[in-house]
Specification:
- By secondary structure, this protein is of the alpha/beta class.
- Helices cover about 50% and strands about 15% of the residues.
- It has a 6-stranded mixed beta sheet, sandwiched between helices. Strands 9-10-11-12-14-13 form a 6-stranded mixed beta sheet.
- Strand 7 and strand 8 form a beta hairpin.
- The radius of gyration is 27 Å and the shape is globular.
């Protein structure tokens, strides 16, 4: 999570002066046929629909790196040829970062080809030299699309395509976004397991291990830098940050300063996730900062009483700060922080979830969240093992993180399906909570979300608590109709007795206050004869594939 960048890290090296060649005719088969070895993303049908429908718009495939934009485009080319379109009526070009093409070069070349070509596919459009506010790209729709030409563009710098849509082409650009894809899609298209998706989710080819820092730099930092510098929005950032404003006319220094600022904001955002602290109370993650609590809980379970007493939470925070830095040292104004955070949301790496009348922030790409936290755990592991006499490692945080990411994957897939009325609920006074509830006309369906492979009876402690159930039914004005555990084991059904659940918790508790809580609930279950409940244990992958 270092912020050490040189100018060379942030600026493309333009050394190649030639203009790339357009590919047309039968040679298109060579570049498109290979892509048929890959399954098609769900948005493929959306692209084919655009190509087969008369309109005066162009199509932009937006998305972060490694989300399948170029493959999608070439699969569409092959589909057109297979459906009977003559290859000579299709033209394709892919730009490199060293291109000398300008927007006027592009328009001139399309104009030259337009007598013979009906379909234009422009890959890596964002490398073409143009200013967002002053360019000829509106002619893609105003001159060519109105003639019936079909134009599809993609770009590594996805934010610049979004700016083109918002500031230049308005309603003349159809957008297909590849950044988000559900677990169901990843499983069906890529053959990904839920375990792999939690670690590598959000990128194509998950078995090809990327370095999170490099992906952060190419997919986010360079994306935003190159887009902002080519738009008036750079002045909005300059107004909020003096370092940027001072160098706004010097592109070399501007790229360097802007790159460092973007990374500092991401570092701060990650620290807020790590420590579960932020200026406002919206972000509730704690990916690494809860290590002391996790080790205390694990040591209690392992009956290492001496270790429990020795744990100093402040010391654990200092160990993390030695690597990540103090959360109070970065001098970034709240307005500037929020402005850049909004850019992260626009390019699709984070998304807000509205739950229980507030919202939490989720990484759209679990890979990025997991990868950055994994780097932290690797750095601090030696100190953590030293503090615990070699009994525990920082990987406990990663074990816990997998469960947190599984929750976010489920929430995001439910949200994007747009079919469910769902929420999570916590009573801050009693500590009773349920990870997920889905309300239907029939009633409330309760779900606990566990990363475990085992159908442990202890996992039901909240959803068999009759006092809590009555509270939920009062708040949501519906009856609870099903009780469920989402986990990684096989799908099955169990009859569970609440009194037995709380007795198990009494027997396994070491802390007196926890034991007293479970004794109280056990006695209430016995006194009021709480009924046996049918619990559905549902495999997480199966649940997500049903959404």
């Amino acid at each position: 999570m270092s912020s050490k960048y040189t100018y060379q890290d942030l600026e493309a090296d333009y050394i190649n002066n030639r203009l790339e060649a357009w590919i047309t005719s039968n040679s298109l088969l060579n570049i498109s046929q290979h892509e048929q070895n890959f399954s098609k993303r769900y948005v493929f049908n959306q692209l084919i629909s655009f190509l087969n429908t008369k309109s005066n718009t162009i199509c932009a495939i937006c998305g972060l790196r490694r989300t399948g934009k170029s493959v999608l485009m070439r699969q569409a080319i092959y589909e057109l040829i297979k459906s009977g379109v003559e290859p000579s009526r299709i033209a394709y070009i892919t730009f490199g970062k060293n291109t000398e093409y300008t927007d006027t070069d592009l328009i001139s070349k399309i104009r030259t080809l337009s007598n013979q070509v009906d379909y234009f596919f422009i890959d890596e459009m964002s490398y073409v030299k143009f200013d967002v506010e002053n360019n000829s790209l509106n002619l893609l729709s105003d001159e060519f699309a109105v003639q019936g030409k079909k134009i599809v563009i993609t770009g590594t710098f996805s934010y610049i395509l979004r700016l083109l849509s918002n500031d230049v082409l308005f309603d003349r650009m159809d957008k297909i976004d590849t950044t988000y894809f559900s677990f169901k899609e990843a499983h069906e298209v890529l053959g990904v397991t839920i375990e792999d998706f939690i670690v590598y989710g959000g990128i194509i080819a998950p078995n090809e291990r990327l370095i999170p820092e490099e992906y952060m730099k190419s997919a986010i930092t360079s994306n935003i830098i190159n887009s902002l510098i080519r738009s008036e929005k750079i002045y909005e950032i300059g107004c909020l940050n003096k370092d940027i404003d001072d160098v706004i006319e010097d592109e070399r220094r501007l790229k360097l300063k802007l790159g460092i600022l973007i990374r500092r904001v991401m570092d701060n955002y990650m620290k807020f996730l790590i420590y579960a602290k932020i200026l406002n109370a919206n972000y509730k993650f704690s990916d690494v900062g809860n290590l002391a609590d996790l080790i205390r809980q694990r040591s209690q379970r392992d009956s290492q009483l001496e270790l429990v007493i020795k744990i100093d939470k402040k010391k654990y925070n200092r160990i993390i700060e030695n690597y990540t830095g103090s959360i109070n040292t970065q001098d970034i104004s709240k307005k500037c922080f929020d402005q850049l955070l909004s850019l992260f949301k626009q390019i699709g790496i984070i998304e807000d979830l509205f739950l229980q009348h507030s919202y939490e922030s989720c990484f759209i790409t679990p890979y990025l969240r997991y990868g950055l936290c994994e780097e932290i755990c690797h750095q601090i592991d030696r100190d953590i093992q030293k503090e615990t006499n070699g009994l525990y490692s920082a990987n406990l945080a990663l074990d816990n993180l997998r469960g947190s990411i599984l929750e976010c994957v489920i929430y995001l897939d439910l949200k994007h399906s747009n079919k469910y009325n769902f929420d999570k609920y916590r009573n801050n006074e009693t500590g009773y909570e349920v990870d997920l509830l889905i309300t239907t006309e029939e009633g409330i369906h309760l779900y606990e979300i566990k990363y475990s492979e085992f159908d442990l009876i202890e996992h039901t402690r909240n959803i068999v608590n009759n006092d809590f159930i009555l509270e939920l039914e009062h708040i949501y004005s519906k009856k609870v109709t099903s009780y469920n555990i989402i986990y990684r084991g096989i799908t099955l059904t169990k009859e569970v007795n609440p009194e037995e659940v709380f007795q198990i918790l009494v027997d396994s508790s070491i802390r007196e206050n926890a034991k007293e809580k479970w004794i109280r609930l056990r006695d209430r279950a016995k006194q009021f004869s709480w009924s046996t409940i049918q619990i559905n244990y549902i495999n997480a992958a199966e649940f997500l594939c049903m959404i």
